[in-house]
C-alpha cells in the first residue's frame, strides 16, 4: 500500500469571481452612477440585478467598508444638493413664522412648507430603501466577519444623514423652522382656525422615524428630543394663559366644559396630528394648568360648586368629578367643598328651628306649676304638637338633603367611596350639632308609628323607617336617642296609640341591626311586658268568671320597672284611695298576680290608667272614657245627693289623689267646655283649693261615646325635664364608661392610658361618644375605689386589681 | 397522555390493596398504553452510543455551531436520538442556551413536539423565552419534515406576501353567494390535471394561435366554494382541517374525487394525530413530485439563443403555456475568447422564486419591479450564471428535488450565495466536501478554499486543507500554495493580532491524521490507542521493528513534509 501516495493533478484556479481581481473604483463608478439615477427618480430604467451584482461583487471582495463609506458620501452629497435645491427655498419667511401676517397667509405658508418637506422626506425614504435593497448583501457578509465593529445598517445611516444634512442643516435651520411651523399651526387650531392635519402628521411621522443616533434607541427619537419638549412648553404657556382667560370669561359650568373640550382636543390631536407618544404628557399639561391650578378658584365661583349642588346640576357635577379624578384620585377639593356646603345647609336647617316662622311660638311651660290655667294647658298641648311638627320638619329637611346628596353621589360621582365617607362625616357633624337631634329623630319615628302610617303600604312604612334609621346612624349620642325612644314607645304602648305592632317590631329590628342587641333589649322587654299583661288579664278574667264575678272589668298592664322609663311609669306618683268596687278588683288581681309570681312587688299606677264609665244625663246615656283619677273623682259624686256639691278639699280627702293630678283632672272635667261633666264655683279657668264642684246636670254631648283626656304631658321636654334628662344621661354614661373600663381591664390586666381610652371609645361608639375628660375622671374614680391601680414606675399604665 | 391524566389519580385512591395488575382492566389498559407510548418514544428517540453522536451532543452543549453543522451534514447522525441520560441534542442546546444551534437543529429536522415527553421537556428546559419561542415555532406540524421550508413557501403563496404573484381569480358558488379565490395558474396546473386541462382550454379556446391571458375561471355550480377552499389549502400545502358542516364534507368528498386527490379526503378524515402527520408527509411528498414534474415542463419551454445579444428580441408572451410571469436568462461561457455567447431563456414563476433577493427585485421600483402592460412580453432578467447552474437553482426552488453534480457544485454555491439561498448553499458545500479521496476534483482546490472564505463556509476550508494534506508532496511544489498561505495569513491579520495561520494549522492537522490512519490501517497487530499522539509515537517505536522499514519511511516522510511547510512559511517570512 505504499503506493498510496499523493496522486491526482493540480488544477490551476479558473478565471472567475473567486479569483478575479475586482477594481473597486471601476465598479463603484458604475454603481455610483446608478445610485445617482435612483436619486433622480430614474430607477425604473435600472436593472436591480445589475446593481445588486455590482454591490455584491464589491462586498464579496471585502470592499464592504469602502462601499459603505462611499454610499454614505454619495447620499451626503445628494442631500447637500437637495438642501440647496429643494429645502433652501422652503425656509419659511417671517410671514409664516413671525407674528405678522394674517392667519390665512400663515396657514397656507405653513402648509406649503410642510408639504414640501414631506415630499423631500418621502423621496429620501424611497431612495434609501432602494439603496438598501441594492446593498442587501452587505449585512449577510457582515453577519459573520463584522460582528464586533457593528456598522449601522445602510438605511439607518441614510436616516442619520437626513437628520444631519436636512433637518439640522446648520445653514437653513429646517428643524427649528419645522417646530415653529407645527407649533404655530397647532396654536391656530387651538384658537379655532381650521388647519390641515395631513402634512403635520407626515412631518411628525418623519421626526418619529429619525433617531439621535444610528443605534435607533426608542427613547432617542428626534421627535422626542427635538420637538416634544418645545411642544409641551408652548402648550403649558398657552394653557396657563387660557386658564386666566377662562376664569375671567366663563362661569364654572362653561369652564368645565371648555376644559373637557380641550382635553378631548389634545387627545385627538395626538391621534391625528402629532404622535400618540405625547398623549400622556400633554394631558398632564392641560390637567395641571386647567384643573389642578385653578379648580379651587372655579369651584368657589358664584356659579361654582355651591350653585351646582343647590340646583342639582348632575351633568356639571359629574363633569367636575371626572375632571378632578384625573388630577387627584382622592378628590380632596371636591370632597371638602361639597361637604362644606352640606354642613352649611345642615346648619341652616338646624338654625331655622331656633327661629321658627310658624305660629304658634312654643313657650316653655312649667306644667308642674299648680296655678297653670286650663287655657295654658291647651296652649301647652299645641306647643307640644308644634314641637312634633318641628321635629318632623327637621327630619324631613335633613332627609331631603340626604336624598339630594345621595342622588348627586349616585348619578354624578360614580358612587365614589371616598366621597361617601366624607358625606357621612358631614351629616354626622351637623346632626350632632343640634342638641335636640336624638329627640327629634325619635319624635319623627313616634309620629310615623302613631298616625303617619295610616293607609300606607308596608313598603312605604319601611321606607320611612329606613330613612329614620339612616339619620339614627349619624347620631353619636345614641343613648340619648334610646332614652327618648323608650319614652315615646312607652306612651304608644300604654295609650294604645301604636297602630301596628309589626311596624314597631320592624323598627326595633332595624335598630338592632345597626347597634346590636344590648341597645334594644329593653325595648323588646317593653313589648314582652305588654304581651304578658294581655295574657295575664285574660287569664285573670277567666278565673274570675269561674268564681265570684267582679263588678267591673279589669285590664292590667304589668310593667317591669327596669325596662320602662321612670318618667312614664311615674315613679313618684302616690297611690289614691279607690272606691270599694274598684278596690275589690284591684285586690283580687294583686292576689292573683302574687300567687302566680311570688316574691314580686306590684305597685299600682293610677295616673297611667283609664276607665270606661256609663253615665246618664237628661235621660241620655253616655259611655265615657276617662282617666283612672277622673273615674275616682266622678265615683265620689255617686255618694252625693243630686244638686249637692263637693269642695276641692272634700274631694282631696275622699280620693287621696295628689294635688297636681287632682287639679289636672278637675281641669279637664270642669273647665274644658266640651267635657264639662262637673260645674265649678266660682267659674274660672283655674282650679283653686277653694273651689266647689257639683254634677253638671245640664251636660249634653251629641256623641254617645266619647273620651275625656287629661291635659297631656308635654311632648317636648321642658327645661327642667331637659336638665333631669341630661343629668340622668350623664349618670348613665358614667356608669357605662366605668363598666367598659372594668371590662377591658379585667381582660387585659395591664394597659396604657392611651390604649385604654381607645378601647373604651371603641366599645361605646354605638351608644355615644364619650369625652376624654369624663373617661379620665371615671378612671380616677375607679382607682380611688381600688378597682385599678397605676403601675409603679410608669404613670400612664394601669393594672387591674382582682 | 391527557386521557391518562384523568384516569390515573382516582386509581390511586381505589387501590389501597396492592394490585396484581391483572385484576383491574383499567389498569391493564393504562399500562399497555404507557408501554405503547414508551415504545413510541424509543422509536422516535433511539439511544445512540456512537462516537459521532457523542460529539454532536458535546457540540450542542458547547454551542459549537460549526461542529454541529459538520456532524449533521457529514456524519449522518440521527439528530433525534438520545444520549445515555436520555437527552436529545435539541434539548441540550436549548438547555445551554445556544440559540443558533437550536435553530440549526430544528432546521435540520430535530423534533420538538408539544404533548410528548421529550418535547415538553425540551420546552421546559429552554434557557430563555427566545429559545422557547423558537422551539414553539417549529412545533411538530413543521419540524420533523426537512421539506418544511419548501412546503411553507408554497402555502405562503396564499398569503400573497411578501409578493403577490396571483394571476387568476377562481369563482365558486356556495349556498347562493359567490366566493372568489386569488390563486396561481401555474400551481393549479401543476397540482391538478383537472385545472391543467381547464386552464389550457381557456388559454387557447380555438387551438394554437388563439392564446390569451386567462384572468377568471368560473367553477361549475356543482363545486361548492367552501369545500373548494379546503381543496385550495390542500393544493397549496396549507393546513387542512375537517369542517363541522356535513354539507361541506359531502361536497369535499365529491371534489376530492373530481380533482383526483382522494388522499385529501383521507387526510381530512384521519383522527389520529400521528397518522395524520404521516398523511401530511405523504401529501408534501406528492406535492414535491408534482412540482418536480412541473419543473420538467417548464424546462421544456426554455428557449436557446445562440447569441446573447439577440436574446432581447425574444418575446415570451404573457399567455405562455406554463403561465410563467418572468423570464430568467443565463449565458453560456464562451467557447472561445471573443466568440458569441449563447444564452438560454427560462420562463419561470415569480411566486416560486423565494428569496430575499427576488423579493427585493420584484417588489422594488427598479425595472424588474415594473408592472407589465397588456400585451407586453415578459421581462427578461439576465442572471450571472451558466444555464446549468441556473437550472440547478430553479430546480431547487421549484421542488427541492435537485442532484447537484460535483462539476457544478462550486458555481452553484456561488450562485446560491449571490441569491441569498442558504439552504442551497449548504447543499452545494455538502456535495463538494463529500467528494471522495479518489474523486478527481473538477476544479482547483484553491478555488474551493477561497470560496469557503468568501462564502463563510468553514466546511470547505477544512475539506480543502484535508485535500491538500493528502497530497502535500504534490502541492508543495505548486507556486500557488504559498500564495494561498499568504492570503490565509492576511485574512487572519485583518481579523486579529495572532500568529496562527488557519490553513497551515488545518493542513498540519490533516497531515497528522493522514499518517495516523495509514499506520492504523497497515498494521492489523497494532491495537494501541489512536487518540493520543504521544502514546502513538512511543508505541510506534516499539512496533516499528519493521520488515522493510515502511513505518520508518512514513515517519520520515511526515517529518520531511512538516519541514517543508516550515520552509515555505520561512520563505513567506511568516511565523506559525
From TrEMBL, chain A:
Pfam families: Cullin, Cullin_AB, Cullin_Nedd8
UniProt keyword Ubl conjugation, yes or no: yes
SUPFAM superfamilies: Cullin homology domain, Cullin repeat-like, Winged helix' DNA-binding domain
PROSITE patterns cross-referenced by the UniProt entry: CULLIN_1, CULLIN_2
Location of region: Disordered: 350-379
Coiled coil (residue ranges): none
Listed Gene3D superfamilies: Cullin Repeats, Cullin, Chain C, Domain 2, Winged helix-like DNA-binding domain superfamily/Winged helix DNA-binding domain
Gene Ontology BP annotations: ubiquitin-dependent protein catabolic process
Family statement drawn from the similarity comment of this UniProt entry: Belongs to the cullin family.
Protein name (record): Similar to Cullin-3 acc. no. B5DF89
The organism of origin for this protein: Pyronema omphalodes (strain CBS 100304)
UniProtKB/TrEMBL annotation, chain B:
Record InterPro entries: ABTB1 (IPR044515), Ankyrin_rpt (IPR002110), Ankyrin_rpt-contain_sf (IPR036770), BTB/POZ_dom (IPR000210), SKP1/BTB/POZ_sf (IPR011333)
Protein name: Similar to BTB/POZ domain-containing protein 3 acc. no. Q10225
Ranges for the ANK repeats: 85-110
Organism listed in the record: Pyronema omphalodes (strain CBS 100304)
Biased composition (Acidic residues): 525-543
Keyword match RNA-binding: no
Entry's Gene Ontology cellular component terms: cytoplasm; ubiquitin ligase complex
Chain ranges passing through the membrane: none
Lineage: Eukaryota, Fungi, Dikarya, Ascomycota, Pezizomycotina
BTB domain span: 166-244, 324-406
Record bears the keyword Repeat: yes
Region (Disordered): 1-25, 525-550
UniProtKB keywords: ANK repeat, Repeat
